[in-house]
Amino acid sequence: ITTHSRLLSQSNSRAIASAAGFTGSRSRCISLQEFHTEQQFIKTLGEFFVALGGYEGLLLVQCDNGEANFNLIACCRYLVDETRRRTLEDIDVSVKPIHIIFIIQLPKIAGGCQHFVGFQGGKWQSVHIDELLESNEQLPQIEQLVNRAVSDLFQPAYPARSDEIEDIDVDLDASGSQELRAENIEDSDEKEKDQQKIKATLLLKNCLQAAAARIYDESAEVNRATKRIEILLTWLPEDNSQETEFSKILATRVHKLLQQRDEKCPVNQRLWLQHEALRQGHLQETGTFRKALWQKLSSIISPMLSEVIAYCDQNHNLDLLGEEKEWKTRLWLTMINEEVITPLSYDSFTSPVSGRVREKARVSSTGVGHRFNAKFPFSWIVKDMVNVLLLKVGADPSETLISLRSVFYSSPLGQLLKPAFENENVEEEAAMNYLNDFLHMMYKPIVEGELQVTM
Fold first, then answer.
1. Residue 180 in 3-state DSSP?
2. Model confidence pLDDT, tens digit, residues 142-187
3. GO MF terms on file (predicted)?
4. Which helix (H) or strand (E) segment is 102 a member of?
5. Under 8 Å CB-to-CB from 336, ≥6 apart: which residues?
6. Are 337 and 426 found together in one domain?
C-alpha cells in the first residue's frame, strides 16, 4: 500500500487488526526504521510467525520516504518471503494464510518516485490509498462527489406526493403480470437516497468557522464573531445525521446561491473534482487528495454561507433567535425561508467587472448614523416594504392608513406578519418592538435613551 498520508500509530494498527478479526498476538505492526541490522528484522519476523502456530495472522510493515528507501524495501520484502517460508516448513500442522502488508509513505512532490514502483507480480498486489484513516470531519466520500456540482450536495430531497405514489400503483393481475406496488418502489427509493445522501448540515458546520472569518463587522463589539458562531451552533443539530428546520432553511439558501454561481461560471461545475485532481501542487499544500478536495469545497461553500449569515445578522438580528419567544422565532424562520421576502442573490456580492465574490461579507446596519439591536425580526425588510406600498397607495391622508393596511395584508409579507399583529397575546409586544426599530431607522438619537419605547 502506498500513501501520502501519515503512517499508522500502534493504536491505529490495533484498531485495524481488530476490525479485520485479528486480535492479540495474531497481529503485529513494525517499522523498518526501528531495526538497525538485518538479523534483528529476521528475528522479529521469525518470532511472530512461530507465535501464530499456523493460525491466520496479519503483519503490517511500515516505511517512510519510500523513494529514498526503495532498495531497503525490496530487500525486506525478500526477507519476509524467505523467513515465512523457512518458518512454516518447521511447523507440522496445517498452516492458514498470513496476510503481510507493506505500507509505504511516498513523497508529495510531482515526479518524486523515479525508482520506487511498488510490488508488481506474484502473490503481491499494489494499491494506493489516499488516506489510511477516516477523516475526523466525516466528509463526503470521493465517489459521492464525482460528476456532481457543489450545489448538488445541498440539493434538498423532497418526498413524493401522494398523488404521484398512487399513480405508480399499477395492478397487472388481469394480464397475468405481477403487481407493481408503490410501497416497494418507495422503499427502494428511500434506500437509494440514504446511500447517495450527503449531510448538508455537516458541510455547513465544517464551513462555519471559515465563513465567520470572512464576515466584516464595523461594530465595536469585540466578541460578536464568537457570539454569531455560538448562536448558529445552538440552532444546528448536535447529531450530524439529523436536521432541524433552521439547518434545512440555511442549506436551502446556500443551495440557491451555489446554483446561481454555477449559472455564472463558464466552466462545467460538475467537473470540479476532475479539475482538482489534475491541478499541480495540492498534495504539497494539503498532504492528501481528500484534504485538497475539502479545501476546495470549503473555498466554494464558505463565501455563500458567510453572505447568508451577514445578511441575517443586520442590526444583531441573529440575537432574536436566542430570546426563546415563540412568535419571534417562528416569524424569523418563516421570513428567512421566503426568498421573495428576504432576497439574497449571487450578483449582490460579486464584482460586476471580474465576476469574483468579494473578499469580505459586510454586516450592515440600517440605523440612521448609529447602530442598534433590533427587537423585531428583519424589521428593515418590513420598513422597506411599507415605503414601497405607500407609493402605490397615494397621497390622500384620509385614506392612506386604511388603504395601506388592505394592501399590506394582501402582500406576501403582510400574510406572514398578520398572525403576529392580530394575536392578542403578542400584538402589543410585536407593535412596540417594530416601533422601536422603526425609530432607530428614521432618527439618530442625540442623547442615550432618547428613542426608548415603553409599553
1. strand
2. 888 889 999 998 887 543 333 333 333 333 343 344 443 444 444 4
3. ATP hydrolysis activity; ubiquitin-protein transferase activity
4. strand 98-105
5. 249, 253, 312, 342, 378
6. no
Total tally of structural domains belonging to the chain: 3
Has residue 268 been placed in a domain? yes
Tell me: do 339 and 390 sit in the same domain.
no
Question: What is the rounded CA–CA span in Å between residue 437 and residue 450?
Answer: 13
Distances (CA, A) of 432 to 88, 141, 179, 244, 453: 88, 51, 62, 30, 7
Within 10 A of 109 (CB to CB), how many other CB atoms are there? 12
384: nearest Cα among 451, 454, 281, 314: 314
Q: Grid coordinates representing 349?
A: 456580492
Based on the domain organization, do 260 and 238 belong to the same domain?
yes
Residue 309 falls inside a structural domain: yes
**Domain limits for position 97:** 2-129
Q: What is the DSSP letter of 170?
A: B
Region of residue 122 (left: phi > 0; alpha: psi -120 to 50; beta: else):
left
Do residue 331 and residue 232 come from a single domain? Answer: yes
- For 362, the enclosing helix (H) or strand (E) is strand 361-363
Euclidean distance between CA atoms 342 and 338, whole angstroms:
6
Q: Which of 256, 258, 291 is nearest to 276 (CA)?
A: 291
β-partners of residue 388 are: none
> Taken in order 381, 383, 386, 387, is the CA torsion positive or negative?
negative
Cell of residue 420, nine digits: 403576529
Higher-confidence residue of 166 and 206: namely 206
Single-letter code of the amino acid located at 207: C
How far apart, in whole angstroms, are the C-alpha atoms of residue 412 and residue 158? 23
